[in-house]
Amino acid sequence: MELFTLAVSTLLIALTFFLLRRTSADSRLPPGSFGWPILGESVEFLFGKPEKFVGDRMKKYSPDIFKTKILGEKTAVICGPAGHKFLFSNEQKLFTVFRPHPMQHLFRSYKPKSAELADPAPPSSKTTDETKAIRQPGFLKPEALMRYLVGMDLITQKQLHIHCAGKEVVEFYPLSKTITLTIACQFFLGINNPERIARLVKNFDDVTVGMHCIMLNLPGTIFYRGNKAAAALRKELIAVIKEKKEAMAKGGPLHDILSHMIVASDPSGKSMPEPEIADKMMGLLTAGYSTVATTMTFLMKYLGLNPDIYERVRAEQLAIAATKKEGVPLDWEDMGKMKYSWNVICETMRMVPPLQGTFREVIEEFTYAGYTIPKGWKVYWTVSTTSMNPQYFKDPERFNPSRYDEGEAPPPYTYVPFGGGLRMCPGKEYARISILAFVHNVVKNYRWEVVDPNEQVEGDMMPEPQKGLPVRLYQH
């Protein structure tokens, strides 16, 4: 009997010690809630608008950091300019890139089945980052982009003529997607076949939405549609890869990113398998297509709603056109003259961020704002904690491109649509010149009115106008 009492007492002491340790550890975690079992707070995050999700919890828990569970991951949301600075300054020290599981699934089909069974969700630090394929050879550096500027200009001119000439009302969101996908396919793949590209738009849309969703693979769900679209795109891209290999064998030029991926090899001399190349290209095309199209679309909206700003942009672009002979495309020097137009683009991205935020994986436990974040957790950063905050942007609801003029620039780490630090978006310059080429051509040839100024913005991680932004065009 005494032995039994001793055993029970020992067990109770051990249990008490365990609970005290757990309580102590939990007390060091940021405030917040993990939400429902399994789902966590994913539904609120995805369908309640990410900026509202974050804003509400900043007010409830802390303006600096809070914990949650989204897309299957225990996550710390780091807020504000100090949080942005901390995150961007500690890339590859405390954090590494992390892709949510839906994204991993959509873009990692080339992984052998045996490896999937052994390691169904490998740490992101072990995966190959497709952006290395374009960072290392410098495809997105200004000197390389100069070669593609003429093509961007000509594609934009042609697509605007095809879809706008003689039209009274045009839905600009679908047109922006066609323009940006045509440019991306020529830049990344080296193909310029508008008909072939146009039929891929719906697939890219489904993949874009499917990157951030609840992983429920049943007919009718977002994830199911994303899977089907990814399979269709992969099949098409593998066909393009085979065509590219045949052209290269006959001495074709190696001027695009796809050609580089085909000839690239690892230290052992082994080349990438075709499905892996296809998935990497699908990821790059999705990134280079959706965010640029979103910015172009809402740029049209804000220029249409602000005639005085439109006239100032048009005057800047006409001054550039006046220095060029008829038919001569834009060059790199012209891009540097579009300062006010770039301010307008920046203000568009502040008002409607083309991407709300991204995830990182914690590779070393750290302390921030007095709270401890364990290794293996995820960190989410978002532009919405600063972009509409009156503390950093005076009168934030007002569309005001002049706020970026010298002397009025926002404080550091408050305007971060392209991220920062080592993980600064490598496509920033690509996005800049493709949107500026669009601005030049559209304001030079058209003025317009927004048909429905109160059109709702839909979408969670990727915003889009509910009706496709119809505008009434007037040709100059």
Describe what this molecule looks like in 3D:
The chain is α+β, with helices and mostly antiparallel strands and 476 residues long. It has one domain: Cytochrome P450 (Cytochrome p450, Orthogonal Bundle), CATH 1.10.630. Helices cover 51% and strands 11% of the residues. It contains 18 helices and twelve strands. Helix 5 packs parallel to helix 12 and helix 12 crosses helix 14 (274-305). The chain is globular and about 65 Å long. The model is unreliable at 13-25 and 112-128 (pLDDT under 50).
Summarize, please:
The chain is α+β, with helices and mostly antiparallel strands and 476 residues long. The protein has helices spanning 2-27, 42-47, 50-60, 80-89, 101-107, 113-118, 132-135, 142-164, 172-189, 194-198, 201-210, 222-249, 257-263, 274-305, 307-322, 332-336, 339-351, 428-445, and strands at residues 65-70, 73-78, 95-98, 169-171, 357-362, 366-368, 371-373, 378-382, 446-450, 457-458, 464-465, 470-475. Helix 11 packs across helix 14.
